[in-house]
Each structure stands twice: as structure tokens, then as C-alpha cells.
Amino acid sequence: MSERVAVRKTYKLFIGGKFPRSESGRSYLVQSSNVSLASRKDARDAVVAARAAVKGWAGATAYNRGQILYRAAEMLEGRREQFVALGIPGDEVDAAVDRWVWYAGWADKVAQVYGGANPVAGPYFNISAPEPTGVVAVVAPERPALLGLVSVIAPAIVTGNTVVVAASPTEPLAAVTLAEVLATSDLPGGVVNILTGAITETAPTLAAHMDVNAIDLTGVTDAALATDLEVKAAENLKRVLRPAPADHDWSVDPGLDRMTALLETKTVWHPKGV
Amino acid sequence: MTATTTSARSELSELGRSETALRTFLHGLPGVDQVGAEQRAAQLGTRSIKTTAKAQAIDLAIRMVDLTTLEGADTPGKVRALAAKALRPDPADPSCPHVGAVCVYPAMVPYVAEVLRGSGVHLASVATAFPSGQAPLEIKLADTRAAVAAGADEIDMVINRGAFLAGRYKEVYDEIVATKEASGDAHLKVILETGELATYDNVRRASWLAMLAGGDFIKTSTGKVPIAATMPVTLVMLEAVRDFREATGRQVGVKPAGGIKTTKDAIKYLVMVNETVGPDWLDPDWFRFGASSLLNDLLMQRTKLTTGTYSGPDYFTLD
Amino acid sequence: MFEYAPAPESRSVVDLKPSYGLFIDGTFVDPTDGGSFKSINPASEEVLAEVAEAGAQDVERAVRAARKAYDKVWGPMPGRDRAKYLYRIARLIQERSRELAVLESLDNGKPIRESRDVDLPLVAAHFFYYAGWADKLGHAGFGANPRPIGVAAQVIPWNFPLLMLAWKIAPALAAGNTVVLKPAETTPLTALLFAEICQQADLPAGVVNIVTGAGETGRALVEHPGVDKVAFTGSTDVGRAIARSVAGTRKKLTLELGGKAANIVFDDAPIDQAVEGIVNGIFFNQGHVCCAGSRLLVQENVADRVLESLKRRMAQLRVGDPLDKNTDIGAINSAAQLERIRELSDAGSAEGAERWSPPCDLPDRGFWFAPTIFTGVTQAHRIAREEIFGPVLSVLTFRTPAEAVEKANNTPYGLSAGIWTDKGSRILWMADRLRAGVVWANTFNKFDPTSPFGGYKESGYGREGGRHGLEGYLNV
Asked: Which CATH number, 3.20.20.70, 3.40.50.11270, 3.40.50.300, 3.30.300.30, labels domain B3-307?
């Protein structure tokens, strides 16, 4: 009897909740698989999808976002072996699940911690509350492929942003697999969009895109590219997170910074009178 | 008057026929934001009125004073002395104008009338069971007729606040209409007693109600409740007379009463009149101060401006 | 008629020197490689004083002084002592507020009523507020032991010279940073008087340094490699250039830039207060306000009524001598700004909008622009899109709340917005949807040191004021 022939997986992009191939028709060989090589046009399509998803996702209740992210953690846990099969250490997968759950719980708490009432010197009700900045472009850290990725996506979306992520070019399979997790959770299409391929191709498009509100350069390792991207981002005053240091320890408590860096503070005044 | 205001006027005159129509109209008036109204009033109070402008304002304010005494202890002698002061506020200075009116209880009207006859100083009488208004309508109307018969040419009536706060707007309206009729040729000032109305929304509604019912003046207060005239209340009333004239073509006067004691206060009110309704109301026929002690402060400041030195209370009559 | 006699505030409380040096390391010094320029009174074009223009070497000296003060004195100083210096400064400002207010009106052209009743009280309150934070930073929500950033380069605009200085310096110092601040070239004088106040407070040398000059001085300052933090308030174009210039550096950046705020009036609004809010929204400080309500969005079914009330109210505005206590609208800050306002207003007329101003006599000398409204404006007009930064209001109409939100948000800016309606649930619905950092409901142009201020989108990033205002000056 001959051995069963396996059904291999095609690793595609994740845009607007669907898994298209690159519109350019290109792929590149990495981690022994052919992975889509996203083009500038794919990046633009992803921004359109992310923008379309903002209204529903930012407008959802915080409780609802928390529930959906928790559901995604459940899915992630269930696929533990699949990630391990990609070569990701089991404890990294565990840490990634824990990180995701940690952020999921922030959905309905960050406004209480980061916002609040302001005691102005007058007869006014005055309150500051955080709001998502909108569409966030993210250059994911090259490694750890899963924990790093989760650590940049979760803080961005938990508060209501939508993201276009340029995945690790050298280890993109974790990102595509995570996309499959998200596609089977209740996350609305377009909230997370994942581009695989060359950072040098996708990131400049995202950095220059006028309908992107913020860019997270965490995974950019080339200093000259990081500077170039920051310069491009200045065109519409994107919020910029600068690259993480090469020795960044992804296992430590991340704090609130990654969430708050992608939040706007809105302050509302109203008179108090009869 | 334009054709639009004529038709608006006749439409508005229909409102008094139905409780529902009145309520719908009054509750459809734009709201008043308390904080905003108070800030605007305070801002108007920061105007700096000096030298010639101050002199002009002081003389105008004197001419606008309704010199008032409304005490149980009022006697013929007391009100005669007050009337004499109304005619010649500063006996030492013949250039000082006389006040706008003397305001007394109905029983005191005959004594004041003797003094004021032919002087151009008006004689106002409170009426309609002032200050509470808590008497049967017939008695209130009789009160009014008696005051007019005794020589009052201005009647300061009180509205039925109880009925207003209970939402019986037509009852309030009908009483004003009846009092207006009982007043005959006398000018009718309608006291809203804004201190009891509690909100600026109510002040605006009561202002419109009084104007719709035919009041010639709207007046803030009796002076007999803790909160009398304030700048923001008067501001809301000025906006009401402004809007009413715009809608109907008919001009209605405004009288803040009670609590205005200093020249500085009076000038703030005049600034507010000037910048809210304009010069048409800067006239004793259209704006009055219900006051007593205000007059002496105006006189002292007037003397200061003419002589350059500050005077003292001993130099002005105490009536 | 009731004509108000002139009521000029005395300028004798201000003791102006003929010339001013740079304030570096606790003393006034002459520039080494810079020149000088004149600061004029925009209401009369009279020269007020000659002011040093800092060159690159002067900026270098200032940054070095700030670094030394940071390393040796201010950084190591316990928060409770930093607090006491800031409290001292707050008190000195209160004590000298009349002098500061008069000088502000002289140099800027704003009415004394505003510098006296708005700017100066807020300046003192701002220092007072942040003084109290200096020894409580561990409780501010940025970790148990948040650290200052270092030397802050701060560049401020000419519209609220002293207030913007307070917004910059107070939180920076409270957090433990030292600063080099560049005031605007048309309004340097109150910053220099503030430098004297620092001396009077015995603030350690180098903690606050003031370098005067124009764009080149500002550029040298923000691009200086010894600077750890850049804070800028001003135009979006300059903000963009600064964002580019700090790219690839370690410098932390906060920007407070332009705006084109919608002031939205619904048919159930408290109309008289709304009209006041519209007037305050666009004519406060001659419209030289980044958060000005420069686009009036009025519901079509009340547009005529609101406009009629607005015009009547505008006729009461008193334009003229900034030092007259009854002046509502003072002088435009500079010839260049006047030119820009004229150019955009002319574009409004040319594009077919209808222009209206109340009759008003403008002085012969100085820079003046009558309060102006344009009706019949659409989103396509330049005057509906570009920041005019002057007393010019563009009036647009809408039919439904959703349309109001759509039009309000249809701009690259996102600094502020106004909502006027008596319906509470509509206010909250609107406030949720407006993409702006400050939303004033049934009020406008209100400021408080406890209340965070700053924009969305191209109006910049970071917040000034409140607990949030510390974040830009701490390593978090």
C-alpha cells in the first residue's frame, strides 16, 4: 500500500476577511512553502478593507470586542499543535495565547484607566475618553514569529483600531496561520489584514498612504528604512511607533504603551445648569 | 409693520384661546442654557463705562427709576416725601432730572397723586393682591380698578405663579387679559416673580405669556421674595421683548426690580439693554428700574462726576 | 444712543527696555552669531523693542545650559522642590498679571479684556496645576517611577504667547525636564518678561532658556542633536516639517497644529447662547485660534433665524484699540497674517460665497480686519477647507445629524468641534462620531489646565493639559 499523499496548504494574503493571492500573481519561497508576495496594490487594497471595517469595529461595544478577542484566543489555543508544527516552540504559543487573553480583557477597562473626569474650574461636566486612532499599519517583528505578531496586533485592535500588518518576511507562516485563526473566530473581516512578502515593498506604501492614521515600525530592523518610513508618515501626521530595539524581550509584561500609543483622547465639555 | 408681522401677530393672538395652543407655543420657544446666559450677562458686566458715557448713563438711570416704597408701614407722610424726592431728586442741582415714576400700594395712590399731578412723573401702583396674587380674581380686578380710579397711570400686577408652575397657562393668560382690561388707559406691568419661576426657560415662557396677553411691560420681581432682579434674568427678558417685537411689531418694556442698589449695577443693566435690544429701549418709556436706595447712589455718583469729589450719604435726602 | 467713552488700560505698568538679549543659563546675553529684530505693536505699527535673534551657536549654548541644568540640578532635584519653584512662578504671574496682560495686548494685539480675563488667569492656573504634579508623578498612571526625558525644545506660536509658553513649560518642568523655548518672532516680549520672573523666583540657571528668533532659530533648535524632546504648536505645514526632521532620531515629539472646526447648530438649540458660542468660537482672539469654530454648520430649517441673530450680535462687536477695556476684537497680529486673511477672504468672494461684515470703522494704522461671515459656502470652497486663522466664519447648512457629522469630519484636521442642541442623547451621539480632540457641547472655546487638549489627524498628536499632558514629557 502506498503512503497517503498529503494535501498541502497554499499560504495566501488575508484581506477583508478573505484569503486572496497577491493581485500581482507573485509568490516567494520561504519556510519551504510558496507564500504570496504582496504588492503595493495589495497594500492599498488592505488599507481600503481596514478603513471599511473601522466604523463597525470601533463602534462595537467594548464588551463585544473583548468577547470576540477572547474567542480568538480560544481558537488560537485549539490550534496550538498547528503552530508547533510550523516550528514555533510550545511555550511561545502558550505565551501568545496568554498575551492575547491579557489584551482581550483590556477592551472594557482601558477607557477607565486612561480616561476620566477632569475637575475644571467652572460649571462644566468634562470628561476625557480614549478612542481608536483608526487604521494602523504595522510592521511585525521578524521574530518571535507568533508572540511578536500577537503582541503588536492585539493592542492595536482591542481598542477598536483596524490593522494592516506586514508579516515577518522570513517567518510568515505563523502570520498566515494566525489569519486562519482570526477568520474562524468572530472577528469582522477587515479588522486584521495580513500582507506577506517584502517589507521594503509594502511598508513604504503603507507609510505614505494618506488614509492610514498610524504606523507601528516595531519590526523594522534597517535604520535607514525606518527613517524613510517615518519621513513618509509625516505627510499626514501619522502617529509613529519607532522600531523596537533588537534585544527587545517579548516575554515581559508589555504595559499599556502599545495600546495608548494608538489612541486619541477626546475631551467633551458640557455646561451644568437647570 | 410688515405684512408678515401683521399676520404673525394675528396668529399669535389666537394662542390664548386654547390651553393646548399656548402650551405648545411656550414649550416650543428655544431653551435657555443657564451657564451660557449667565456668562453673557457677566461679560456685559465687564464693560468699562467712564467719563461722558458714565454721566449720560447716570442721568438716564435716574429717569428710569421707579422710586418705590411697598411697606406695611407706609403712611401718607412717607409717600408724599417720596413723591417730592421723585420730582427733585437733588434739590441742590436743578439740572438733575426727575425719576420715571413713583411706585406704591393702591391705598397710597391718592396722596402721591396730589404731589405728582402734572409733573410728568408717572404714578405706578401695585395691584392684584400684590405680592402673592393669592386672592380671588374679582378682588384682584377690583384692586386694579381702585388704583386706576385713584390716579395711578401704571399698574404693576403679579402673575399667578401657582397656576404657571402647575402648567395652567391659560388661567395666567386670562388673568392678565382681564387685568389689562381693568387697567383701562393705565400701562400694565406684569410682574413675573422670576425668583419663584426657578429656571430661565420658565422666565422666557412667562415673558411671552405676559406679552401675548397684552402686557405693556414685563417686570422681574415684587422685591418680596429672596431672589429679585438679576442680570441674567433680565437678559432673558430683554431677548424675549426683542424677539416679540420682531414677531409682532409691538414693543414691550422691561423692568428689573429689587436688588439693584448701586450706580455700577445700574450701568451694567444699561449696557445690557444697549447691546441686547439697542437704543430703542434706552428710554424711560421702555426700561425702568424698580428701586429705592439706588437713587441716592446715582445722585452721589452724579455729584462726584460734576464736582470731582466723593460725596457722603448725609448730603442726600433719606426719603 | 449710548456711546461708550474710551476706557484705555494704562500702559505705564509695563517697563519696556529698548532691547532684549537671549535668556540663557539664567542670564540675559547678547547673541554670538545671531542678529536682532524688532517687535512691533500690531495695533499701531510702533516699535516696542529690539530683540535678539538667536543663531545656531546661541541655540547650542542654550541647549548646553539646559543639559547641564538637567544633569546637575533639575533632574536630581526632588519633585517636592521642583513643585515649590513652579508654585512660586504661578504666584509671581498672579502678582504681575496686570503688567503681563498689558504687555501681551501690546505685543500681540489682542484685547485687554481677553488677556486680562482669559490668558493670564489660565497661565497662572496652568503653572499652579502642574506644580502639584511634580511630586506625584508616580501616581499619574505612567508607572511607579516615571523618568523625565531630558532637554525639551519648545516652539510656540504668536496667538497666545504666554499661555502657550505655560502649556509648554509647566508640564515639562513638573516632569523634571529642562527647556529651551522659542517664542514666535512677532510676540517675544512676554516670554522675556517670563524669563525675568524665573530670575525673580530664583529658578536654577539653565532650567528655562528662552531663545528669540524666527523660523531659522526654531529649526536650529528642533534639529539640535542635544535635544531629547520636541514640542511644537503652530501650523500643520511646519509641524509636518518637524515630524520629518525628527525621523530616525530618539526625539519624542508632540504637535498641536491647525484646525477647521465645525460648530454645529441644531434647530432645537438654545439659540441666544448658540449665537454667543458662534461669536466666541470665531471672533475670540481675532479668530487667531487653532480650535476656532471657523465652519458654522447650521441646520437648514433654522439657518435664516440663526444668521439674522448672528448678524445682529456681530453689529455689537467693538473693533479697535486692544488696550481699550471695551474692545472685543483687537488687531490682526501681523501684516503677513492680515495678507493671508485677505487672500482667503477674496477667494471666498471669488468662489461665489456671499460676504458680510457689520459696519465698523477700522483704525488707519496697524493691521485690522472686520469680523466677517460668508454664507452660501459649500465644502468645495477654499474657505471651508483651509485654516484662515482670522475673524472669518464660513456658514454651511445641513439637514440631518448624520449629514452634520459627515460634513464636520470631512477635513484633514480634527482639533475641535461644537454641538448646540437641547437634546442630551443627540449630544452624546454626535460627540461619539466627531473626529476631534475637544468637543464643546452647548459651549465653545473653553480651556482649563485639567482638561486635555489636542487633535486627531493632521491637527497633531499628544495632549496638553491634565494628567495626559505629562505623558509627552515622561519616558513611558
From this structure: 3.20.20.70
